[in-house]
Design a protein that fits this description.
With 229 residues, the chain is an alpha/beta fold. The chain has helices at residues 40-48, 70-76, 93-98, 113-118, 120-123, 135-148, 165-178, 191-197, 223-228, and strands at residues 2-11, 14-24, 29-33, 55-60, 63-64, 78-81, 153-157, 183-188, 200-205, 208-214.
Length: 229
Amino acid sequence: MLTVHNVDLYYGAAQALRSVSLTAAIGRVTCLLGRNGVGKTSLLRAICGLQPIAAGSIAFDGQDVSRLPSYERARRGVALVPQGREIFPLLTVKENLETGFAPVGRDQKKVPDEVFELFPVLQSMLRRRGGDLSGGQQQQLAIARALVTRPKLLVLDEPTEGIQPSIIKDIERAIRALSGELAILLVEQYYDFAKSLADQYLVMERGEIIARGAGSDMDRDNVRGLLAV
């Protein structure tokens, strides 16, 4: 579904990504781990078309999308849940969800029932402004908004950041439910959350992938120790 091959990315003279390669397939959760500032978000921005790459390629659904703008990638089924959520605080929950209609056809401009099955609290808050929701509820809204775009690939940038434990469990259940029908790329620093979901893992350091393997091998491979270095 998603194939990133030998990608380099620069901010001016500073190199943020160095020959990064990964794949993400439908039915699997791919977890990307690493400390702050190692290039995880830069990689997600490259995948979603928010930052141009200097070398390498990004293919999605069998087609090279390396030079496509972000809105074209969204139309093809790439959806990003950004770090910090970035919901619209003055819009209602309903209006926030409807912003996800932008990349879909006229016949799909309806919030899927699955959104409210995954996050039932949102259905009771449709008229509330996004800025009035708790941090955890805003995170659920951000994921729900991404699902409204009918993605094939769901990219999540640290969805547990600043979230209370009860809602982390809700988000974990939602990701697990979605993983059967989507490709999921999850960036996370919370080790236990990543380990509970990962079918495969990758660890980044200084813009490079320094380790990768099966999610079931994360303890054996001392991934927690790699994150503490």
